[in-house]
């Protein structure tokens, strides 16, 4: 007789698995990882020192309330501490947001394609994912999203700029959309790539949150701040949303190392802005070169670019790998390539040039 296995929730059936960006192959030709939208720079000044000093207390639990980091964030962004919540990366906070708002029978809406964690965290909570296709230009279709709202909708993610297309929605269209969404539906502006935005028409979500109690902003230390490995992100939201996030967060989810490093990074903002500026220059160079080579690239406001390659996606990703750069393929759709070190970007551009000639 076969023994019964533990019963698991039906909601877990069919949950897609998160595919992390592949690492660069060890021992191959010079290999660069352009598959996870990481920052190519080492930690900001002060971060290593704070990490070494936090290491002396690894036998202790971290400060569960993240007091120092919350105070620093409150000062930096001009928001009350009660409106802040931290988590293990912004994906951890996003999961708490879904768990705080949606369960079986409820709907969570987002554009598609967008950040691949949205369907996963939605299905884990038992809610129904409602995916609204991007426009032909790979931008959020906010009109279609407003029309898709039902009385079951509990949360809407607007990924701005969008991962993996890099496109951003502008103030007027976002405000128009928010005017149409009922005020008891939480709208989450996921601004993981905020610091890379250069289009002046793209609004700062924190300005929008101030005016609208149903808007929450998600930010992370993983991208511009270069702390992806430490896992710390945060939300800015009104009560009672911020309070719900603090209730649903995994206790002690943000290590002391991560808290201290985040504070040190916030205090090195000049240096941060310099680095982000260099990456944005590289983004412009890469995008302009691609256009010269004959590619159509959506305007990226993030630290990556999107090539809609359709059926050629896998071939292109393989060609990149052969040349020493690992990119992120979405089979049948396209490739997302992070803006990395100049040499890595050059290698990518060599592949795009050769590939374009073959198309
Ligand atoms: N939001 C978006 C749009 C992302 O692309 C990512 C990272 N890929 C995250 C959130 C999560 O980042 P983290 O958990 O490292 O803060």
Please give a structural write-up.
- The protein has 359 residues and is of the alpha/beta class.
- It is 38% helix and 15% strand.
- The strands form three sheets. The protein has a seven-stranded mixed sheet with strand order 2-8-7-6-5-3-4, sandwiched between helices.
- Helix 3 (89-101) crosses helix 8 and helix 10 (269-293) packs parallel to helix 12.
- The N and C termini lie far apart (58 Å).
- Bound molecules: 4'-deoxy-4'-aminopyridoxal-5'-phosphate (PMP).
- The site of 4'-deoxy-4'-aminopyridoxal-5'-phosphate has 13 residues, from helix 3.
Structure, briefly:
By secondary structure, the protein is α/β, with parallel strands linked by helices.
Given as residue ranges, the uncertain stretches (5+ residues, pLDDT < 50) are none
Q: What is the number of strand segments? A: 12
Q: Radius of gyration in whole Å, from Cα? A: 21 Å
Q: Total helix count?
A: 12
Helix amount: 25-40%
**SSE order, as H and E?**
EHHEHEHEHEHEHEEHHHEHEEEH
Instruction: Describe the global form.
Output: globular
Largest sheet: 7 strands, mixed
> What structural class is derived from the secondary structure elements?
alpha/beta
User: Which molecules other than protein and nucleic acid are bound?
Assistant: 4'-deoxy-4'-aminopyridoxal-5'-phosphate
Task: Provide the descriptors you would attach to this structure in a database record.
globular; binds 4'-deoxy-4'-aminopyridoxal-5'-phosphate; alpha/beta
